[in-house]
């Protein structure tokens, strides 16, 4: 009977490139952002890290052919480049020549994708600081074409442009929406949806999916579903409401509301008229309930909470003449954004924690990304990531007498979503459901 000889053999392990594709993220915001000010540092006479740009001007008017010359209100927004990020790695000379030299292209590509993800994530986080109007409550699933149509209807009711609307939704929510649509008898749309399993363009809006949308973790009022009663109304020097004090907080400690929370003035309050936004242009009562963004985290105090809000609420009281007899001051008429005078006893409700999607109109989501200078004396190049189309700086060099060779990829950027052109969509944190 033969036996296997006890040979002294060597095992040699090699490292081979697999050819696997990179696991990436969606760059929906970057791809669709308004890049008019991408390199605004090159604009004539612009100094500093901020550029000011105009938005729609507003006017007052009068029901007469006798001209009453009122104010021309020029509205502006600012875009500031105040974000920076870098990815740096280093090798010894031995590591470089034996291990890394032939692999630097892949190291660089992965570093660029890391930068692009950071930029995309930061840009989308603006949803939490820029949007005051919203659809959904953080509890009810948004899983149908009908709900999307309602969201768009409310969005347009306040005011919209004809430049094209884009909606950013969680990628994990899209299958359920498409699936409910397939149950409707709409042959052409369903055929397209079934083949792509994407929403695509619907109701004049392009739907874009993202896996990097921000999450708003609400304070206790949102999580507990508290109905708060307005106990005190504070007005600034222009008589606009800048914060309210509310009673009815059910918890005794902790943050009652958090910056980034959103709330709605409730309908059907006994003895109170429903509060509605005025249309942005023309100041006509809309069908949209008044909604606000919480700008400052606030703790509960004796069952009450002070809520700093945005936008400033110019209700009827704020735009009346000094006599406050219901007569609107012509010089303030263009400021009115609430249909009636808000009084104590009005009730509000804060949305629960949610994944924040958004509707954006008129190319109002901006991205600026100035090109960084050469890092003299190190070799420097500006590279374009083929997936995100963003430009990043790359430079490399060695530390004198320290046997260290370093490579750096970095960038700076700024972004801005113009608030009146956007509306948040609150998807429950449970969106997508179980993996079944």
Explained architecture:
The chain has 436 residues and is of the alpha+beta class. The protein has 2 domains: 25-217 and 354-436, phage-related protein like fold (Alpha-Beta Complex), CATH 3.90.1690; 220-352, Elongation Factor Tu (Ef-tu), domain 3 (Beta Barrel), CATH 2.40.30. Helices cover 19% and strands 33% of the residues. The protein has 9 helices and 24 strands. Strands 4, 5, 6, 7, 8, 19 and 24 form a 7-stranded mixed sheet that branches. Strands 9-10-17-15-12-18 form a 6-stranded antiparallel beta barrel. Strands 3, 20, 21, 22 and 23 form a 5-stranded antiparallel sheet that branches.
Brief descriptors of the model:
single chain; 436 residues; alpha+beta; Elongation Factor Tu (Ef-tu), domain 3; seven-stranded mixed sheet; six-stranded antiparallel barrel
Helix and strand layout, with pairings?
Blueprint: H1 28-32, E1 50-59, E2 72-80, E3 83-91, H2 93-100, H3 104-125, H4 127-130, E4 134-135, H5 145-158, E5 165-170, H6 174-182, H7 187-196, E6 201-202, E7 205-210, E8 215-216, H8 220-224, E9 227-235, E10 241-247, E11 255-257, E12 262-265, E13 276-278, E14 285-289, E15 291-294, E16 298-299, E17 304-313, H9 316-319, E18 347-350, E19 354-361, E20 365-368, E21 380-384, E22 391-399, E23 404-417, E24 422-428
Parallel strand pairs: 4-24, 5-7
Antiparallel strand pairs: 1-2, 3-23, 5-19, 6-7, 8-19, 9-10, 9-18, 10-17, 11-16, 12-15, 12-18, 13-14, 15-17, 19-24, 20-23, 21-22, 22-23
């Amino acid at each position: 009977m033969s036996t296997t000889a006890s040979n002294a053999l060597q095992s040699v392990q090699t490292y081979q490139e697999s050819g696997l594709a990179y696991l990436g993220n969606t760059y929906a915001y970057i791809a669709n952002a308004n890049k008019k000010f991408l390199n605004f540092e090159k604009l004539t006479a612009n100094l500093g890290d901020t550029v000011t740009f105009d938005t729609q001007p507003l006017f007052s008017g009068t029901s007469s052919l006798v001209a009453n010359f009122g104010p021309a209100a020029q509205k502006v927004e600012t875009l500031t480049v105040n974000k920076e990020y870098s990815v740096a790695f280093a090798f010894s000379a031995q590591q470089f020549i034996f291990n890394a030299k032939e692999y630097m292209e892949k190291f660089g590509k992965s570093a660029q994708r890391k930068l692009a993800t950071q930029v995309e994530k930061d840009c989308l986080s603006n949803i939490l600081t820029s949007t005051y109007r919203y659809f959904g409550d953080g509890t009810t699933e948004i899983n149908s074409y009908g709900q999307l149509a309602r969201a768009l209807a409310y969005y347009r009711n306040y005011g919209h442009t004809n430049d094209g609307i884009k909606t950013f939704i969680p990628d994990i929510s899209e299958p359920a929406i498409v699936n409910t649509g397939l149950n409707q008898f709409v042959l052409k749309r369903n055929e397209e949806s079934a083949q792509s399993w994407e929403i695509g363009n619907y109701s004049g809006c392009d739907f874009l999916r993202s896996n990097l949308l921000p999450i708003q973790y609400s304070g206790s009022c949102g999580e507990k579903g508290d109905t708060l009663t307005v106990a005190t109304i504070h007005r600034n020097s222009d008589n606009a409401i800048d914060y309210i004090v509310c009673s009815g907080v059910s918890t005794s400690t902790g943050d009652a509301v958090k910056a980034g929370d959103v709330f709605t003035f409730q309908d059907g309050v006994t003895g109170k008229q429903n509060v509605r936004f005025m249309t942005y242009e023309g100041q006509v009562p809309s069908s949209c309930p008044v909604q606000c963004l919480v700008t400052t985290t606030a703790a509960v105090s004796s069952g009450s909470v002070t809520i700093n809000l945005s936008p400033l609420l110019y209700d009827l009281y704020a735009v009346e003449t000094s006599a406050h007899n219901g007569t609107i001051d012509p010089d303030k008429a263009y400021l009115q954004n609430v249909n009636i005078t808000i009084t104590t006893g009005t009730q509000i409700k804060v949305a629960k924690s949610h994944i924040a999607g958004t509707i954006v109109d008129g190319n109002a989501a901006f991205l600026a990304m100035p090109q960084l200078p050469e890092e003299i004396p190190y070799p420097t190049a500006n590279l374009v990531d083929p997936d995100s189309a963003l430009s990043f700086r790359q430079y490399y060099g060695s530390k004198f007498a320290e046997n260290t060779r370093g490579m750096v990829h970095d960038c700076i950027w700024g972004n801005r979503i113009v608030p009146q052109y956007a509306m948040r969509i609150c998807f429950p944190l449970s969106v997508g459901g179980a993996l079944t």
